[in-house]
Amino acid sequence: MSTAASPEPLPSPPGGPRCLGGALPPGDPQLLRGRSAAAGLRQDFSMMEQKKRVTMILQSPV
């Protein structure tokens, strides 16, 4: 369990979310790239948190 405060969500831009001219079809390469990037970022943040916990444990007094 982490005692660090979780980051606050970013506020929505003025005027609401931007629309790129309609919904993208499910197999659209742009949509797939966006989903892949989001998953990669989540994985990176998870790994960073894991490294922080391991570092804290290794540096803790015995």
UniProtKB/TrEMBL annotation:
Region (Disordered): 1-33
Name assigned to this protein: Uncharacterized protein
Organism field: Falco tinnunculus
